[in-house]
C-alpha cells in the first residue's frame, strides 16, 4: 500500500487529540508518534499542537496541515484503489458511521458477516444521530455513512439502502389503553415520547404529522430521549406511546413487551440511505455498500 505514514500519524493525533490513543490505534509506541510529529513540525516550521496539562489541541498551523493531509491521504486511497489487484483479498481500514437506529438494529449482524468474509479489513464504526453522521462525512472523518431521514443541506451524495416504517407502540402492560387502533384526531391526546433534536426519526415524524395536518407542537410530548433503547425502557414503565422504527421493536413485539397501535390515516414510511462525499466511493466503502445491499436483499 502506497501512503505517507507520517501524515497518517499526524491526522490520527489530530482526530483523537491524544498521542496515546493515536499510538494504540496505529500499533506503534508513543515515542514513535512524538518523533513523527516533531519531524513534521520541523518541516513546516512551527508547532502543530499545543500540549498543556495533559490536553492536546491543534494550532492554526496544525489545522491548515490537517486540511491538506486529509486530501493527500484520500488521494493515496484512490491511488491504491486504482492499482489494486482484483484477485487480492481486500485489506485496510474502513471508517463507517451510522445513525442510531441503523447502528443498533440493522448493522450489527451485517458487520459480523462482513468481518467473517473480509477478515483483513479493520472496521471503525461511529454512531450518532443523522445530523452528526452527515457532519462526519462532510468533514472527511469517515468514509461512508448510513443515515435515516432527510439530507441536511450538505453537498453530499445519497443512495437508497433500505425501506423502513415508523409505527406507534406502547407497552403491553399499558392498562389505560387497550385499543388496537386510534383515530388521527385523537393522537394529540396520547402522552408521547420522542427522540432528540437532530434525530432522523424525529425529522421524519414531524414531516408526517405536517402532511396529516398536525404538528409536533400540538402533541402531548411527555419526554424527549436520546436513543431507542431509552425510549423502550421508558414505555415499559409508563402509559406513554412512541413512534419508533419497526426495525427497533421487532424483538419486543415477538416477546410481547410492546404492541403496535394503528393510527387511522397516518402511515410513516422512510428510507435508510448511504451517504458519501460527492458520491466518490473508494474500494473498501464500495465493497461494504455492495455487501450491505446484498445482505438486505437476501433477507427479503
**Strands, total number:** 13
Query: Structural class, judged by helices and strands?
Result: alpha/beta
What's the helix-strand series? HHHEEHEHEHEEEEHEHEHEEEH
Number of helices: 10
CATH topology of the domain at 164-269: D-Maltodextrin-Binding Protein, domain 2
Q: Determine the N-to-C terminus distance.
A: 38 Å
Q: Mean pLDDT across all residues, rounded?
A: 87
Which percent range describes the beta-strand content? 25-35%
What is the radius of gyration computed over CA atoms, rounded to a whole number of angstroms? 23 Å
Instruction: State the helical fraction.
Output: 40-55%
Describe the structure in your own words.
The protein is α/β, with parallel strands linked by helices and 300 residues long. It is 43% helix and 27% strand. The chain has ten helices and 13 strands. The chain has helices at 5-16, 19-26, 30-44, 60-82, 100-117, 130-138, 200-211, 228-236, 250-254, 283-299, and strands spanning 49-52, 55-58, 92-99, 121-128, 144-148, 156-171, 181-183, 191-195, 220-225, 241-245, 258-260, 262-264, 268-277. Strands 3, 4, 5, 6, 8, 9, 10, 11 and 13 form a nine-stranded mixed β-sheet that branches. A two-stranded antiparallel ribbon has the order 1-2. Strand 8, helix 7 (200-211) and strand 9 form a beta-alpha-beta unit. Helix 2 (19-26) crosses helix 3.
Q: Outline of this structure?
A:
This protein has 300 residues and is α/β, with parallel strands linked by helices. It has helices spanning 5-16, 19-26, 30-44, 60-82, 100-117, 130-138, 200-211, 228-236, 250-254, 283-299, and strands at 49-52, 55-58, 92-99, 121-128, 144-148, 156-171, 181-183, 191-195, 220-225, 241-245, 258-260, 262-264, 268-277.
Amino acid at each position: 500500500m502506497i501512503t505517507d505514514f507520517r501524515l497518517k500519524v499526524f491526522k490520527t493525533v489530530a482526530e483523537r487529540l491524544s498521542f496515546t490513543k493515536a499510538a494504540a490505534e496505529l500499533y506503534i509506541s508513543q515515542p514513535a508518534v512524538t518523533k513523527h510529529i516533531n519531524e513534521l513540525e520541523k518541516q513546516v516550521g512551527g508547532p502543530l499542537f499545543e500540549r498543556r496539562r495533559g490536553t492536546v489541541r491543534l494550532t492554526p498551523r496544525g489545522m491548515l496541515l490537517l486540511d491538506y493531509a486529509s486530501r493527500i491521504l484520500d488521494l493515496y486511497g484512490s491511488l491504491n484503489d486504482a492499482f489494486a489487484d482484483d484477485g487480492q483479498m481486500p485489506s485496510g481500514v474502513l471508517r463507517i458511521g451510522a445513525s442510531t437506529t441503523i447502528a443498533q438494529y440493522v448493522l450489527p449482524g451485517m458487520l459480523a458477516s462482513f468481518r467473517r468474509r473480509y477478515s483483513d479489513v479493520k472496521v471503525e464504526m461511529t454512531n450518532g444521530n443523522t445530523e452528526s453522521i452527515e457532519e462526519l462525512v462532510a468533514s472527511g472523518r469517515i468514509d461512508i455513512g448510513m443515515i435515516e431521514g432527510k439530507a441536511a443541506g450538505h453537498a453530499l451524495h445519497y443512495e437508497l439502502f433500505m425501506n423502513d416504517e415508523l409505527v406507534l407502540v406502547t407497552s403491553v402492560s399499558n392498562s389505560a389503553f387497550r385499543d388496537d387502533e386510534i383515530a388521527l384526531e385523537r393522537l394529540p391526546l396520547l402522552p408521547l415520547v420522542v427522540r432528540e433534536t437532530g434525530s432522523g426519526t424525529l425529522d421524519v415524524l414531524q414531516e408526517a404529522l405536517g402532511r396529516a395536518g398536525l404538528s409536533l407542537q400540538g402533541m402531548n410530548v411527555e419526554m424527549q430521549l436520546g436513543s431507542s433503547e431509552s425510549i423502550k425502557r421508558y414505555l415499559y414503565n409508563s402509559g406513554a406511546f412512541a413512534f419508533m422504527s419497526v426495525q427497533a421493536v421487532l424483538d419486543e413485539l415477538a416477546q410481547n413487551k410492546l404492541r403496535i397501535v394503528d393510527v387511522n390515516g397516518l402511515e410513516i414510511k422512510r428510507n435508510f440511505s448511504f451517504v458519501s462525499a460527492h458520491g466518490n466511493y473508494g474500494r473498501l466503502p464500495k465493497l461494504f455498500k455492495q455487501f450491505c445491499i446484498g445482505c438486505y436483499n437476501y433477507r427479503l
